[in-house]
Amino acid sequence: MKQLILSCKKATYYMSLREEGKLSVTQRLQLRAHLTVCSLCKLFQQQTALITKNAAHAHDHSNTLLSNEKKEEMGRLIKDITTGN
Amino acid sequence: MNTIKVLNPDGWVTNYADLLYAYTIVRINDTAAAEDIVQETFLSAWKARETFHGEASEKNWLYAICKNKIIDHFRKQSSGIAKVVVREEQQYFNDADHWTIEKQPNNWTVDYTQPVETKEFYSVLEKCKQKLKDIQQAVFVMKYMEDIESTEICKLLELTPSYYWVLIHRAKLHLRSCLEKNWINQS
User: Fold this and answer.
1) Which residues on chain B are in Cβ contact (under 8 Å) with A40?
2) Which of B57, B79, B101 is the last residue of a domain?
3) Residues B158 and B173 in one domain
4) What is the ipTM of this complex?
5) Are A81 and B98 an interchain contact pair (Cβ–Cβ within 8 Å)?
6) Most CB within 10 Å of its CB: which of A49, A53, B66, B117?
7) Mind telling me how many Å the CA of A28 is from chain B's nearest CA?
8) Are residues B103 and B170 both part of a single domain?
9) Does the beta-carbon distance from A70 to B35 stay under 8 Å?
10) What is the torsion angle, in degrees rounded to the nearest 10, for the CA atoms of residue A67, residue A68, residue A74 and residue A77?
């Protein structure tokens, strides 16, 4: 019975493996059972999902621009190579 | 020579430099390296101009080259470092592997299913990501921002699967905790 009960540390570790279908049937059931009773791990799951799903769009929300000096430098470089200098 | 007609290198800096730079900087958090990657993207694109057949747009083609440079950056960065699991200085779990009071997740008053549109989220995420160890950052970006499978990431960065999963686990623990502290509790 002891090995059926997953710790929070293991449950949160299993969540990443589950994303790629890398859990055995037993592990999947253990995780599901853990999540039905553990509200903290449930929160962890929702919050990390929010982070990982939105992270890929970070550049759409970034105000960081390349400096003008750097742009001019790149422009000159491209001009040089494309005109064969 | 009709490739020259399709590609417009004269407009690359104006049209794509900021886009490619923003894409790169949120992934590698290193100004000088990000500038180099953008410049190298343009140079490689010009060198490989004969391979551009116009199936992809010029923009997507440049993005693809840039993505490869980002992965290459992580690969080079990872090749010199020791890959051993070290004890965590931060304690997320107690001796029974249950959450500690200090680090346990608290409810966020957000809709977890909706895309996040607030700028603060992304700037805090970037700062939190910077606090990760380089190798943790690399696996997080490759997995969740570049959508590469774990087996491929392990191959590229020369990691054992068990080490990879520990890195991903810890990266998530750090980022969640850091965002709760600096985004949720500050807003």
Assistant:
1) 99, 104-105
2) B79
3) yes
4) 0.91
5) no
6) B66
7) 16
8) yes
9) yes
10) -140
